[in-house]
Design a protein that fits this description.
Number of helices of chain A: 8
Strand content of chain B: under 5%
Number of helices of chain B: 8
Helix content of chain B: over 70%
CATH topology of one domain in chain B: MetI-like fold
Radius of gyration of chain B: 22 Å
Largest interface: A-B, 36 and 37 residues
Order of helices and strands of chain B: HHHHHHHH
Structural class of chain B: mainly alpha
Strand content of chain A: under 5%
Largest sheet of chain B: none
CATH architecture of one domain in chain B: Orthogonal Bundle
Number of strands of chain B: 0
Helix content of chain A: over 70%
Distance between the termini of chain A: 56 Å
Largest sheet of chain A: none
CATH architecture of one domain in chain A: Orthogonal Bundle
CATH superfamily of one domain in chain B: MetI-like
CATH class of one domain in chain B: Mainly Alpha
CATH class of one domain in chain A: Mainly Alpha
Number of strands of chain A: 0
Distance between the termini of chain B: 77 Å
Radius of gyration of chain A: 21 Å
Order of helices and strands of chain A: HHHHHHHH
Oligomer: heterodimer
Chain lengths: 220, 218
């Protein structure tokens, strides 16, 4: 080991700082997940239409979000807008860019789910006296979520991994807080192993609670 | 004599710097793809062999998929340095991105191998092929068909993730862009250039892979 000694005791005093960072990560993950979903639902419907300005707008969003690195998207919102003297705080910049990314990927996931649902379902809902919005909310979307649930949750976890980019713009999320804490002693490996363990636990926690929620919502 | 800061604007010489960054991005993505694909095919095959092998390798795949790439890069950097292996950020990047790539490729390969109907394999064995021949001539070609489109998508994510290698000091395109932004303050031109470049690389390939998916689905 080239005489390297692991000093794990250096990590424990910084745990409160890292846990505070983990809380920021969890917040950002949830908010970006919800915002992404709210944007992606109408965009998926627009993509399903196949024509018109809404379709073109949604397509442009999806292709931009999916074909450029998440770092680039974050830098546009943080450094790019900063250069125009629109100063977005790092927390907001990470939230906007991860939501943007989530929305792009989720649109495609939702569109895949929508195409699995027969078109007559909406006509049936309309003929029962619902308007289109009610038809989508009460008839189409509940069925769609059942089809795409696993891909949807995986995207949520991807969103969580993307929030770690906050470190690059000085946000004290789990990665940023760890980076800050290790800069005192430069025990990089010890600190980041602990951070990696925390990310793993958060990911598994999200996955497990999402599965429980799924079971509760769709128990038959 | 008064000291003056050398406030330099963007010049044509900077395109050389950016081209170097682009070359570094391509090198890193290519080497990580090679390492990850070979590792992934082996790991994916191992994961279909027996339940024991699958359970034993699950933690590797699971952990590599649920820890952010930045942290994997930093860990690869510090761990390999501690072990005294190498000091080149290119190697660190290849190890971290290649490890991630092999974990995700393994799942794609496994899904591909599982999609080969078991009676195909049994027929091959009953024709007198041994397990290796059956794997090479029957299972892999059939698995390739289903695994190709998802694998292309993984390569695309790898190219996009390679933009993070700047964190450990590897000057790829995104890092080169950032350096020039710091010096010249020409934020939008450089940033949009970087976005456009990644878009030009990824968009046609993702279009192609989506067409491939549709063709195979039919």
């Amino acid at each position: 080991m080239n005489g390297y000694h692991f000093y794990w005791s250096m990590v424990w005093p910084s745990l409160p700082l890292m846990l505070a960072g983990a809380w920021v990560t969890i917040q950002l993950t949830f908010l970006a997940f919800i915002i992404g979903t709210l944007i992606a639902l109408p965009m998926a419907v627009a993509r399903q239409e196949g024509e018109g300005w809404a379709y073109r707008f949604a397509t442009a969003w999806v292709e931009l979000a999916r074909n450029t690195p998440a770092v680039f998207q974050l830098f546009v919102f943080y450094f790019g807008f900063g250069a125009l003297h629109i100063n977005i705080p790092s927390y907001t910049a990470v939230l906007i860019s991860v939501s943007f990314n989530n929305a792009g990927y989720m649109t495609e996931i939702f569109r895949g789910g929508l195409s699995a649902i027969p078109r007559q379902q909406l006509s049936a809902a309309r003929s029962l006296g619902m308007n289109s919005l009610q038809g989508f909310l009460h008839v189409i979307f509940p069925q769609m979520f059942k089809v795409i649930f696993l891909a949807y949750i995986t995207q949520g976890i991807w969103g969580m991994l993307n929030t770690s980019l906050g470190m690059l713009v000085g946000l004290q999320d789990l990665t940023g807080a760890t980076q800050y804490a290790q800069s005192v002693s430069f025990r990089t490996f010890e600190f980041f192993i602990v951070a990696a363990g925390m990310y793993y636990l958060i990911a598994k926690g999200l996955q497990f609670s999402a599965l429980v929620a799924f079971r509760l919502m769709y128990r038959s | 004599m008064q000291f003056q800061f050398a406030q330099q604007g963007l010049t044509w010489h900077d395109t050389y710097f950016l081209a170097e960054g682009l070359l570094n991005t391509i090198q890193l993505a290519a080497s990580a793809t090679a390492v990850g694909t070979i590792g992934g095919v082996v790991l994916g095959w191992v994961r279909t062999v027996s339940v024991t092998a699958r359970v034993a390798t699950t933690p590797i795949v699971d952990i590599l998929r649920s820890v952010p790439m930045i942290i994997q890069l930093i860990l690869a950097n510090s761990f390999l340095s501690i072990m005294g292996f190498s000091t080149s950020p290119f190697i660190f990047g290849t190890v971290a991105l290649g490890a991630w790539m092999s974990a995700v490729t393994a799942e794609v390969v496994r899904a591909g191998l599982l999609s080969v109907p078991s009676h195909y394999r049994k027929s091959a064995r009953s024709l007198g092929m041994n397990r290796l021949q059956e794997l090479v001539h029957i299972s892999f070609p059939l698995a390739f068909r289903t695994a190709l489109a998802p694998w292309i998508n993984l390569v695309l994510s790898l190219i996009k993730d390679s933009a993070l290698a700047g964190v450990i000091g590897y000057v790829e395109y995104m890092r080169a862009t950032q350096t020039l932004i710091t010096r010249t303050h020409e934020t939008w031109i450089l940033l949009l250039g970087a976005g456009l470049l990644y878009f030009i690389i990824c968009y046609p390939v993702s279009k192609y892979s989506r067409r491939l998916e549709r063709k195979i689905a039919v």
